[in-house]
Design goal:
Strand order of the largest sheet: 1-2-3
Shape: extended
Number of helices: 10
Largest sheet: 3 strands, antiparallel
Distance between the termini: 75 Å
Strand content: 5-15%
Order of helices and strands: HEEEHHHHHHHHH
Radius of gyration: 25 Å
Structural class: mainly alpha
Number of strands: 3
């Protein structure tokens, strides 16, 4: 039985700086994702944990530890005293990397709903580890990824709105994402980090791009035409445009 994967990769070359992804149908008849790497390929499930495993009979380690914390609260009346040790956090981090590879691949495939799902899931991992990590070092090892996750989550939601032509909802979503990242830096006492945040820089640039692409509403077109008519001293036309705008406001 041959195990050489060269035939699998033939014609699908790796290119540095470019994310190459494809969907395939596995031997089990289910759709899967393949991500091209320099020395091979990662294959991931579309649903559940990317490697298809069910640790402790749960969908993921995240669900396992969430259940453990809930059980602790039921037994002790609060979550005080519940901790995730180094091994727990290492397992959660390794699992989160799987989801990271998947949501990057899904982003490339423009599968916005699944990117939203996986980024929201990894944000829950950050929250869990930040709450129950045994040491501050463990907590920070997860918290450092929160701005990036918020940025990717915001981008996926925004792209979904753009695909539906919902420019205003996209703009509101980007502003929401920017505010959540700013709140994170404030909560961590790193207000100055906002100035150097690549996530904030990226979302601000995108905000400007979307504003530039957004089609004007009928009212905005009339207002723009009115300003132009006044500037050109076309007062009769300006009066007509004012009347049209007033009529819009009364309907």
């Amino acid at each position: 039985m041959g195990h050489d994967i060269n035939s699998l990769l033939k014609g699908w070359d790796f290119e540095p700086g470019e994310i190459k992804v494809r969907k395939i149908i596995g031997n089990d008849g289910k759709e899967k994702i393949q991500l091209r790497l320099d020395l091979g390929v990662l294959q991931m499930e579309l649903e559940g944990r990317p490697d298809g495993k069910r640790p402790f009979g749960k969908e993921s380690l995240l669900e396992h530890f969430k259940e453990m914390s809930s059980r602790w609260q039921a037994e002790h009346g609060s979550d005080e005293g519940f901790k995730l040790n180094g091994e727990d956090c290492a397992g959660l981090q390794q699992e989160a990397i799987q989801y990271y590879h998947r949501y990057l691949s899904l982003f490339q495939l423009e599968d916005w709903d699944r990117v939203i799902r996986d980024t929201a899931r990894n944000l829950k991992v950050v929250d869990l580890a930040a709450r129950y990590g045994e040491t501050d070092e463990m907590k920070q090892s997860f918290l450092q990824f929160r701005p990036y996750l918020l940025m990717m989550h915001t981008r996926a939601i925004g792209e979904k709105h753009l695909a539906a032509g919902e420019f205003d909802l996209c703009l509101k979503n980007i502003e929401w994402g920017l505010e959540r990242i700013r709140e994170f830096y404030v909560s961590q006492g790193h207000v100055e980090a906002e100035q150097n945040s690549p996530e904030i820089k990226m979302l601000r640039q995108w905000l400007g791009q979307v504003r530039g692409q957004r089609p004007l509403s009928k009212k905005e077109r009339l207002q723009k035409e009115l300003a132009s008519a006044i500037a050109r001293e076309q007062y009769e036309r300006a009066a007509q445009l004012r009347d049209a705008l007033r009529a819009m406001e009364t309907t």
